Amino acid sequence: MERPERLDLQSADGAQLNLDALYQIAPSCFTEATDPKTGKIKRVVNFDLLRQLLGDDTVEDATEAYEFNWVGKQEAHAEVLRPINKTLRPVKKDSVDWDNTQNLYIEGDNLEVLKLLQKSYLGKVKMIYIDPPYNTGNDFVYHDDSSRSQEEEDLAAGNIDELGNRYRKNTDSNGRFHSEWCSMIYARLMVARSLLTEDGVIFISIGVEELATLKNICNEVFGENNFVEVFSWVKTSTPPSLAVKSRKTNEYILCYEKNKNNIKYNGELLDGGDQPLLNTGNAESVLTFPKDKVIFKPKAFPNGVYEPYCKDRVSLLDRIEIIDGKATTDFRLKGEFKWTQSFFDEEVKNGTTFIIKTDNLSVRFIREGEGYKRPTNFIKEKITSPVIDKPGVGVGTNETASSYLTSLMDGKNVFSYPKPVSLIKYLTNFICKDSDIVMDFFSGSGTTADAVWRYNVENKEVALKYILVQLPENLDENLKTADANSKELLLNGIQLLDRINKPHKLTELAKYRLAKTIDSIKQDNPDCQMDLGFRVFRIDESNFEDVERTPKEYNQDQLDLFLNNVKSDRTDLDLLFGCMLDWGVKLSLPMSSEEVDGKMIYTVNEGDLVACFAEKVTDSVVKAMADKQPLRVIFRDSCFEQDADKINIYETFKQLLDWSDKDVEKNIRVI
């Protein structure tokens, strides 16, 4: 039996992901060759065969071609493919409802975070919304110049913060003003595309400054055929009166799908878009209605208990209680209905919902996607709400967003040009349902999390999850180059953080905003049982010391690294989540722990992964791990005193779980 493999302990290899995708559509173009680095046989592309397969539709060294190019594009593309040796460390003390939540808040450079998430979230994110820097000359742009050494980066004033994150203000005096912005957004979109589901969609807010540039980049990354729309959003109701050329009221939202499809977007609710379920002349029948699929209009059905009654042509056969437009139990109606119970049940399964507007119980139905207008590409300040159980609430502006955030943040205005929650809720309603994942990797003030929570509150049949990523920008450093307006906001933020005894980081303000949002939702919805928490992670260097040295570099003091190469400041949770990332397990899954013979066993999602990092594990520990019927098993080298112990443990798993040698090689990893 071969020994089980070790985990990669680094992010996904972008080039390998591309090779895997190509193999799915053109396996005949692949052959096998020896890897000069490892000496192992690996799958490689035969370009001659690939050219034959593509026929005349190939080009090499064309003197003229239709393409979008800029200085640094090749390096940006190389950066996309380059794996990194970093990890995400859990920050339990900053999290809310750690044990139960499936929402993630991640602190770090978003390009690095996106790479780390590729193994676990490849093809799993339904919607991405981002509000990146607009490149106005005043905002900060991530600087990814990997061609320079770290020492050179450190010497480049203002390009690095104390955490090693590279970001700087991209002023128009910079000779590569547009090029650096292009490289920054291109690399991140390339990686982000791989995270989208096959029917996933991305929305990108942008100003007029880089609208054309961004569209060119998106055409390359997502494909011109997958372009959906440029939505125009009214960002302000008070455009500056002293503008020299034009008073700007609008910003733009680019929309692309990963693969263009026929799925209809939900925009405004149709007037009269619902249809009657009753049909005069049909024989009377009884239908059982699920409690969560029927909306009672509050004017006709205020909160209270309703006894069985008959009015006009429909009878309520059960005693029900209605709270906020929803019955607390399933109930039966008798009437001249169009549908049989079996047809009705199939409609419910396909997403059809029902609405009762008056006390004569004249129930009407709304098929999924049929009750909405398609959204217009002009998102006005006031629209009809897409939420069918609420009156029109409108999509707000920067002003309404600032007013709302000021009320949340203890009366202090600390965020610049925030997007309104209503805007992101409106976009979310286009495409998301069930337990889809929404991602925002320029998350700023955390508005996307707020929008997801409030969308879930208003649409009780969904349970959307989110992943937010944000660089922990140093507010003190930002203050040094801020203009007068930004300086006021930064000082407000610093004062608030001092009061709550937190570091001067943008991420600390955002986490405080999320906590205040949770309080607000609970206050307005005291019986709310939805997921109102988030797990915090922070990017850091690998959990393991670098032991890749040549024989000449060894010395006696370093030999212990080969026995225990885990860094001294790392905990079991650090190792567990690092393994989850490396083995492609979602970071949001529930987990539990138990102690056996003084050794801690960690179980993820009732057996998706079972791990033990203790020294000298016993037979009882191994049997307890096997009892969980694990799909994946993780040990540390220090779990075994000698190689013979490993073999005995592998044999134990084979016996207890009826595993073959191949199962052991596939399902057990050692770090």
How many strands, what sense, and barrel or not for the largest sheet? 10 strands, mixed
| Uncertain residue ranges | 146-164, 382-393, 558-562
Query: Major sheet: order of its strands?
Result: 3-25-4-24-23-5-8-10-9-22
Mean pLDDT equals 84
Total DSSP helices: 18
Question: What share of residues is helical?
Answer: 25-40%
Multimerization status: single chain
SSE layout and pairing:
Blueprint: H1 14-25, E1 30-34, E2 41-45, H2 47-54, H3 73-81, E3 86-90, E4 104-107, H4 110-121, E5 125-130, E6 140-142, H5 150-155, E7 167-169, H6 177-195, E8 196-206, H7 211-223, E9 227-234, E10 250-257, E11 275-276, E12 285-289, E13 294-296, E14 304-306, E15 309-311, E16 314-316, E17 320-323, E18 326-327, E19 331-335, H8 341-349, E20 353-356, E21 364-366, E22 378-379, H9 398-408, H10 421-431, E23 437-440, H11 447-458, E24 465-470, H12 475-480, H13 484-499, H14 506-524, E25 535-541, H15 572-582, E26 591-596, E27 599-604, E28 609-612, H16 619-626, E29 633-635, H17 643-657, H18 661-667, E30 668-670
Parallel strand pairs: 4-24, 4-25, 5-8, 5-23, 9-22, 13-20, 23-24, 28-29, 29-30
Antiparallel strand pairs: 1-2, 3-25, 6-7, 8-10, 9-10, 11-21, 12-19, 14-17, 15-16, 16-19, 17-18, 20-21, 26-27, 27-28
Notes on the protein architecture:
With 671 residues, the chain is α/β, with parallel strands linked by helices. It is built from 18 helices and 30 strands. The strands form 7 sheets. Strands 3-25-4-24-23-5-8-10-9-22 form a 10-stranded mixed beta sheet, sandwiched between helices. It has a 5-stranded mixed beta sheet with strand order 26-27-28-29-30, sandwiched between helices. Strand 23, helix 11 and strand 24 form a beta-alpha-beta unit. Helix 6 packs parallel to helix 7, helix 10 crosses helix 11 and helix 11 runs parallel beside helix 14. 35% of the residues are buried. About 5% of the residues have low confidence.
